[in-house]
Amino acid sequence: MTALHEPASGGAAGHDPSARLTEVEEPLAEGEPDLSAAPPAEGDPDSTAAEPLTVAGIRAAIAPILERLAATAKTREESRDYAFAEVRALAAAGIALTGIAAHEGGAGGSLRDVTEVVIGIARADSNIAQALRSSFLTAEQVVARPDRPHRARTLARLRARDLFAGTANERTGGAGGQINATARPDGADWIVNGEKYYSTGGLYATWFSTQARAADGTVVRFTVPLAREGIERLDDFDAVGQRLTASGTTRFTEVRVRADEVTELGTPEQPNPWTGAFAQLYLAAVQAGVAARALDDAVWFVRERARPIKHSTATASVDDPYVRQTVGEIAARAQAARAVVLLAAETLERVHGLTGDALRAAGAAASVHVAQAGVIAIESALAAAELLFDVGGGSITGRDLGYDRHWRNARTAANHNPRQWKQAVAGAYHLTGEEPPTTGLF
Fold this sequence. Notes:
Strand order of the largest sheet: 1-4-5-8
Largest sheet: 4 strands, mixed
Strand content: 5-15%
Number of helices: 11
Distance between the termini: 32 Å
Order of helices and strands: HHHHHHEEEEEEEEHHHHH
Radius of gyration: 22 Å
Helix content: 40-55%
Structural class: alpha+beta
Shape: globular
Number of strands: 8
């Protein structure tokens, strides 16, 4: 278990993962509302990049970065080499601003556009896509919730190309959602102690959002800079797959949380309580990217490395009918994953702007739709990753190729949101109209 304050070898030289990801800034627009009604937080950005963004421009800017990530994914996993330089470059290109409105400094893309960017990143390296999840979630909250606490402040940080991490998870030994981290008042501020696990993206991020519990049971939610004294990031995530998602422990030891950094006290009721739908859509997009990468590797291996089995009637593997059938099935699985995820994105976007009963009904329906898409995406990715090995003989299992990582990555990501529960919830909704749980897994 390693405490990480500097990047692993091979990352950006001398780069502190708590450092801001850009220094290109300009002041906030005159008259921009400060919904936080509070002074700037410690380390807060006060400016934004000047050049207007477009979805096409973001895609063009990240294309060569994704090529580098795809080419190095296997070796970086083997040496546990975090892609600090590439992640900084993705952030600088404005990926988290893809869905932010143009008049607020974003590219003005749809939720489908955002999801396509995520699938593209996951196709190159699903670890990187998952590590960026909190940043995309933060951006979607800014879009979907005009009443989001500290919205103007968060938007300024996004425009400054900062990255975000956060988790409520703890290794408590109890049921999921149990909070053991403590918060005690100190004047207007709070002092927090505790540990959070699955801090996905924590080694790359500038800001961390989490929660702790006061002695009277009140839940204190807050966002603080990861460079804050008393915060320690541990590189101790040790799963069979998704090994470089920076999902280890974040330890808080007598950390001061300023009053203006608290985003919520207690658990206010939301008009649309299914706020976790985009988080689940994101994981499904990661699975779609894994399936797409399995297809890429299957095609490459058949064209460049495979030899026909001795019983084959073909003289080249590309002409073998069973290899063709297998590649066709992998392609179908990848297409299915992509299609259901993008359709779910379009469905979820239609919830934006609704109010009252219409919002609640649409939120529940979209949550179920996302859950169903997640089931298909997970099963498609697992199948595609397994079928990859059917396009070659023993040589395709070589460690020099590292193709086992696709199944390991899909399997690990799938365990964060079990599909059996998704299926049961969807069935109940269709049979009886029962609303899905609001726990964020649907």
